[in-house]
Amino acid sequence: MTESTFPIAAVADQVPPRARKSLYPQAILDLHGARLEGREKRPLGDLFGLQNFGVNLTKLEPGAISALRHAHAKQDEFIYILQGCPTLYTDTGSTPLSPGMCAGFKAGSGDAHRLVNETERDVLCLEIGDRTLGDQVIYPDEDLQASFVDNIFRFTHKDGTPY
Amino acid sequence: MTESTFPIAAVADQVPPRARKSLYPQAILDLHGARLEGREKRPLGDLFGLQNFGVNLTKLEPGAISALRHAHAKQDEFIYILQGCPTLYTDTGSTPLSPGMCAGFKAGSGDAHRLVNETERDVLCLEIGDRTLGDQVIYPDEDLQASFVDNIFRFTHKDGTPY
């Protein structure tokens, strides 16, 4: 893709969703797949050729989760709620969110987070995360960890053995 | 500020705005200050201690501009329109935007951009930019350039002499 093929602007909810629903290992999907099926991510930053950070327009249907609860070692994350009322889970418990609210997840804090749509209405949010190399991801609730290698997250068991 | 002082979440439009309206040199403010006065930035990412990228909730009153038209050498930028209908100016001309639209400005493209509120209603948008070191900023319409040094943009004339 050359620069000239990037659009000047776009209607976010008309950007094609990511084809692959999840990058998690199959054993993890076997456990949580149903709650990840209701998650749809439209990669807005990639559309414009951005490489330093990603921006997703993410839809969570009722019952869906944004991710397994996780914390990044080197990459910051940020969310902004556009529609609906998800619940944010962190180490300290649950926080109800609503449109116009935002949250940031500082790299290296160790505090793991995820959003859960516990309502009957779709949730729409923007998710931003940078792509700092050498990132590690911890998942306190699962036998799972990830390393950011060659611009892709590679998953292993907590003891380092592959899935 | 220690990590424990960061909030879990926040209502974006209640985050205090940046005290200093603009970082531009006084000579530039003398030329464009009136159109920058109507710009208000709430630093959402900083509130959570994020360091790899910034997220601003930016309000543009009628007549206000988001910035002088500029292009970054190393830092990506992204905007998402929450409210109102700004006009995006790039090297190729003007593009009308509306709520739910987004645009990305890829580092190194050389294509300079800014938003202008040419309507009678306030514009609200999210602005995201990373903080890659060694960034240079070009301003094709002004005798101005900037370098990102020690996490701050330092401005000079195009021949490198200070303001």
Which helices and strands occur, and which strands form pairs?
The structure is a homodimer of 163-residue chains.
Chain A: E1 10-11, H1 26-37, E2 39-43, H2 44-47, E3 53-60, E4 71-72, E5 77-83, E6 87-90, E7 93-96, E8 101-105, E9 114-116, E10 123-130, E11 136-138, E12 145-149, E13 152-156
Antiparallel strand pairs in A: 2-3, 3-10, 4-11, 5-8, 5-10, 6-7, 6-9, 11-12, 12-13
List keywords for this structure.
homodimer, 163 residues, mainly beta, Jelly Rolls, five-stranded antiparallel β-sheet, four-stranded antiparallel β-sheet, 13 strands, Cupin domain-containing protein (chains A, B), RmlC_Cupin_sf (chains A, B), RmlC-like_jellyroll (chains A, B)
CATH hierarchy, class of the domain at 39-132 in chain A: Mainly Beta
What would the CATH topology of the domain at 39-132 in chain A be?
Answer: Jelly Rolls
Unreliable sequence segments of chain A: none
Strand line-up in the sheet with most strands of chain A: 2-3-10-5-8
Apparent shape of chain A: globular
- Which radius of gyration of chain A do the C-alpha atoms yield? 16 Å
> Beta-sheet strand percentage of chain A?
35-45%
Q: What name goes with the CATH superfamily of the domain at 39-132 in chain A?
A: Jelly Rolls
Order of helices and strands of chain A: EHEHEEEEEEEEEEE
CATH architecture name of the domain at 39-132 in chain A: Sandwich
Query: What structural class results from the helix and strand content of chain A?
Result: mainly beta
Sheet with the most strands, sense and barrel status of chain A: 5 strands, antiparallel
